[in-house]
Amino acid sequence: MKARIDPNRSAMTGLAVAALSLSLGLAHARDGAFPPGQAVAARLTGHMAPRLQNEIMVLGTAHLAAFRDWLEPAQLDGTLDVLARFAPTRIAVERMPPDEIALLLERRQHDPVAGKVIDQFARAIVTHGAALQAALGIDRIEAARQAGAMLADSGAALDETARVALVARLLAAYEYDSAVLQWSYLAPSARAETDGLPDEVREALDRRLQGRDEIVLLVHPLAHRLGLQRLYPVDSQYGGARTSALPEQALGEASQQAWGDAWRASDAWRRIEAAQVQARESGDLLDFYRTTNSEQGQGDDAEQWIGWLDQSRADGIDRFRYAMWELRNQRMAAYAMDAAASTVPERVLFVVGSSHKAYIDRALAPQLGVSLVQFQDYAD
Question: How does DSSP classify residue 374?
Fold first, then answer.
């Protein structure tokens, strides 16, 4: 098994792909049709050394809360071992980033649909964030500045009092998942005895640690194993506000046509379902993650959008819904690059719903500063 991808091999592979792209581009150029954007790769690829690139692994996952009836933490041990071999220096999660939350809060004053998106995807983040902003007497920007300084100065060496203070500032900064991660580093007795947080906030954090989703069951154990102190929220729901503003009945009809009986009777759907059944019967999710992140698994998942692309609605909801899906994934890819941006090479693990993986890989693949790696690179 591979403990680490050889950067020279990675660079050579990138150069080979770039050379092929360049040769194809030159062929198009001779025909008078130079591919858009090809000039960047043609002129810069040879100068893109491994030290300038960040490795990013996009791990497609089922939302594990759906497996809560049978999934035990030990069933993820093999998957965690694989991810630990990748040894990410940063972990990104499918959660809205603070700036996007703030933008939706601003829109909420004039747009009830923005409020609906906040309630669905960020209610706890906003509720606890507002409470801590009031308690600390600072806004989210100042809270983020203070939290960043505390992490840079002390990080893992924080004592209990300082860690509780960090949790408060992360909450006020809308960095909810990082706050929960920091809360998980405290001993249960310290969590119970602290008076540094309002009781309702402390109780909410304790409940969150009992969650059965991929952040609690997969990301937290990996972060603890690697000593990571922060999680990077890189989801986007901004387009969801526009989608939710569509006529409800028409959107429901289009969704049913796309994701109804025909999709659920397809071979692709049956394979997706079979992988989940196999995971439950085997008691180990490693093969499930191999399948889900394979080319076959990603292709099967992508087929769910055929039902949208094959519609031809007079109201255009089909084309708008798919455009918002692609836009959401483009934003997530951009946020992932933002999470990776650093003065030193980073290895970023992005844990995201499996339907997003192929789209995000597709968006990241052409970026010269990104070296995409796959789960199979470390699992095989």
Answer: -
Q: Which residue type occupies 311?
A: Q
Tracing tokens 């999470």 back to the chain, one arrives at 339
Q: Can you tell me the distance from the alpha carbon of 221 to that of 15, in angstroms, rounded to the nearest whole number?
A: 36
How far is residue 143's CA from residue 175's CA, in Å, rounded to a whole number? Answer: 10
- The domain segmentation of the chain, as residue ranges, is 1-47, 53-94+234-380, 97-211
Q: Report if pTM > 0.70.
A: yes
pLDDT tens profile 217-265: 999 999 999 999 999 999 999 988 899 889 999 999 999 999 999 999 9
pLDDT digits (tens, 9 = 90+) for 283-315: 999 999 999 999 999 999 999 999 999 999 999
Got the DSSP string for 49-111? Answer: -GGG-EEEEEEEE--GGGGTTT--GGGGHHHHHHHHHH--SEEEESS--HHHHHHHHHHHTT-
Determine which helix (DSSP H) or strand (DSSP E) holds 17, and give its type and residue range: helix 7-30
How many CA atoms, within 13 angstroms, populate the side-chain half-sphere of residue 100? 22
The residues that bridge with 57 in the sheet, in sequence order, are 349, 373
5, 362 contact by CB (below 8 A): no
Ranges assigned E (strand) in the chain: 54-61, 90-93, 231-233, 347-353, 370-373
CA pair distance 37, 337, nearest whole angstrom: 19
Q: Give the separation between CA 186 and CA 180, rounded to whole angstroms.
A: 10
Q: Nearest to residue 282, comparing CAs of 65, 67, 61?
A: 67
DSSP state of 246: S
C-alpha 155/C-alpha 181 separation (Å) is 12
